[in-house]
Design brief:
Layout lengths: L2 E6 L3 H10 L5 E7 L3 H11 L3 E3 L2 H8 L3 E4 L7 H9 L3 E4 L7 H14 L3 E3 L7 H11 L6 E11 L1 H6 L8 H17 L3 E9 L2 H6 L6 E8 L4 E10 L8 E8 L2 E6 L7 E2 L4 E2 L7 E3 L2 E3 L1 H15 L7 H20 L3 E2 L6
Parallel strand pairs: 1-2, 1-4, 2-3, 4-5, 5-6, 7-10
Antiparallel strand pairs: 7-11, 8-9, 8-17, 9-10, 11-12, 13-14, 15-16
Length: 343
């Protein structure tokens, strides 16, 4: 069995996806699309792709792939997602699903209407500690979840040196989606309202960017539980964590803490002190291992076995709804009510 696959956007995440798919024996990547012709030339030389396109719609209609992996920037997922679904193509979309709650709800309804396979790349579910947390909660070891806390904070080099589109995003859009997905998964509950706070100072004054330096949001769930999410990307460049990540869940009769900032390795050199990352996406000999490749390959297995993906469009809607509400609350100062789930 072999699936014809296309990739839309060949930036950091698109290349990571290509690294995994080109090693999967059930996949043939027939074409990739990107607006940048230099990126396309590099991708063709590095991976040997037969065809490249600057127009993703032209690509999917000419290539007629079985599945498309979408790795465009945060705010540009909706159009390519809907184009693929309209063309009858299965979709794997980078997180977040969209940056608009109503667009995310449209996608949920479209997926249900078409019956196509759809997965959002919240790959942290494939990290063993987070997956174990889900299982321990489902087994009732800490009782019902009552309170949660999560942070993901990055050095300022991430928005200023790594992400060319950071000024059009925010630390929470970039970082907190994983935490929100995990928390809603663990709580097994829908969010109903959010209150957000944010500050725009460092990036605005230094770079002229109208984006948040830091955000914090308090989210209430339908059964009365609540969780706090925080994110910033203005830590000093000397900070060794990327990201500084910590999560907590408090249940009726127990709690779980997850501290992932060090990822088990501590290293110092004459130049710097650091905690090198290896758990999400790391090349061991000739294979990429970790949560990210596991998530990508899991979607291919879903196609082969005709089963529902592990992170559905509905799960993607939940995270987008929370992120959208926190940002709107931070912008207006008001508590934001989250729409009913798109059933």
């Amino acid at each position: 069995m072999e699936f014809k696959v296309n990739i839309i956007a060949m930036g950091i995440m698109g290349r990571n996806i290509a690294n995994v798919l080109t090693r999967n024996p059930m996949v043939k990547v027939t074409a990739v699309a990107d607006l940048d012709e230099e990126r396309l030339a590099t991708a063709k030389a590095e991976y040997g792709f037969e065809r490249t396109y600057t127009d993703y719609e032209k690509m999917i209609h000419r290539e007629k792939p079985d599945a498309v992996f979408i790795a465009t920037p945060d705010w540009f997922h909706y159009k390519p997602v809907m184009a693929c679904l309209d063309a009858g193509i299965h979709v794997h979309c980078e997180k977040p699903l969209t940056t608009d709650e109503h667009e995310a709800a449209d996608i949920v309804r479209k997926v249900r209407e078409t019956g196509l396979k759809f997965q959002v790349s919240y790959n942290h579910r494939w990290l063993a500690p987070y997956n174990a947390t889900y299982n321990m909660i489902r087994e009732g070891q800490i009782g019902e979840c009552l309170m949660g806390y999560a942070r993901k904070n990055n050095p300022i080099t991430v928005p200023t040196e790594m992400l060319p589109w950071a000024k059009d995003s925010s630390p929470m859009w970039f970082l907190s989606g994983h935490d929100i997905d995990l928390m809603t998964w663990w709580f097994d509950d829908d969010p109903v309202e959010a209150k957000g706070y944010g500050v725009k100072r460092v990036l605005r004054e230094k770079y002229g960017w109208d984006t948040y330096d830091a955000l914090q949001g308090l989210v209430r769930f339908s059964r009365g539980g609540f969780a706090t999410f925080e994110s910033t990307w203005i830590y000093p460049p000397t900070h060794p964590a990327m990201p500084d990540s910590f999560m907590e869940v408090v249940g009726e009769h127990g709690h779980i803490h997850l501290d992932r900032k060090t990822e088990a390795i501590e290293m110092s050199t004459p130049e710097r002190f650091q905690w090198p990352r290896s758990l999400l996406n790391y090349k061991v000999f000739d294979k990429w291992v970790g949560a990210f490749p596991s998530c990508i390959n899991s979607f291919i297995d879903d196609l082969a076995e005709d089963r529902e993906p592990k992170v559905t469009a509905y799960h993607g809607w939940r995270s987008t709804a929370v992120l959208d509400a926190i940002h709107r609350s931070a912008d207006t100062g008001e508590t934001v009510r989250i729409s009913e789930p798109p059933f």
